[in-house]
Amino acid sequence: xxxxxxxxxxILCKELTSIYWKEDNNMKxxxxxxxxxxxxxxxTMGAFATEDNSREDSEKLLQKIVDSADEILSSKPNxxxxxxxxxxxxxxESKAKIAVYNIxxxxxxxxxxxxxxxxxxxxxxxxxALQRSRQFIILDRVNFVNLMNEQxxxxxxxxxxxEGPQISRMTGSDYVLSGGVTEYQVDKATGGLGLKIAGVxxxxxxxxxxxxxxxxxxxxxxxxxxxxxxxxxxxxxEKIGIQTFAFIGNNVVEFETGKGKQEVINLVVRTLLxxxxxxxxxxxxx
Length: 286
What we know:
alpha+beta; 8-stranded mixed β-sheet
């Protein structure tokens, strides 16, 4: 039976490969995916593992799939212009230990449908920015409950002997980093006619999106705030439709429908947080 599976699999692969060279690019992509799925299914069923040679063939096929990762993967690094500054910093031999707490949205801005305008992912962006800088030992205090659950499973004897975390080995912090997104505003303006808000007014020429963050670093021994920063960023969008403006490439804001607001504000917040990490490095606190 396994031999039959092997034969059927090879015939299907051969037929799909033959069709591949006769079709357009869209169909070729679909055939690539079909071939990949087919190979994985057949390998899982053992169709290519009946003999040593068959196993070797299947391993080669799987390796080809891995080698084609660049063609299969569609994601790309989520970076800003400031990311390269963080990546260029020299990594220190000794690193300060920073406990990161929630970077919260304090603007109170919401869309008509009730969801927040400002990203709720600022804390995650901050941890990523700190990690990219390679300047600090980062302690996640936001998901601390999850960590404690794992510790409690150990202390309550619910884990296998010798498995799980070691107790009383957690890293202590030198500093606490906290703060929030404190301002958000999207305005539209006309050439020479002054500021127009939320679509009220005449023929709009451009739009401006701005936001601000406030962050502070607190010494965990003394409780003193040893560093604080307030940063504001503003970007201008070009008009591409009656009520539609484009910010930085493909980030589009439609003022009347609210669509796309999240994209541009997320980009601004990420940039501000990365700039804040760079300024923290420059501050000389450490």
